[in-house]
Design a protein that fits this description.
By secondary structure, this protein is an alpha+beta fold. It has 3 helices and 5 strands; from the N terminus they run αβαβββαβ. The strands form 2 sheets. A 3-stranded antiparallel beta sheet has the order 2-3-4. The chain has a two-stranded antiparallel sheet with strand order 1-5. The two termini are about 15 Å apart.
């Protein structure tokens, strides 16, 4: 699904989003938790949390996003 659809589903379920290539490339997976605040998407990487992820153009046009976490 695209990033918009995945974000809507993640917000409804309280989960995050990721792409398959991102969860298999790190020990705990790299995923993004959408928020309704100025923090934007939180980056969850190897149990570290960082605010303000900005998707690239490739991320925005990709259709392989999944709800995760």
């Amino acid at each position: 699904m695209n990033i918009t659809e995945a974000t809507k589903k993640a917000l409804q379920s309280g989960r995050g989003i990721t792409r398959p290539e991102l969860i298999k490339n790190t020990k705990y997976g790299l995923w993004f938790l959408p928020t309704k605040s100025t923090l934007g998407y939180l980056i969850i990487d190897n149990k570290e949390i960082t605010p303000l992820w900005q998707p690239s153009a490739n991320d925005i046009i990709a259709n392989d996003w999944i709800v995760y976490g």
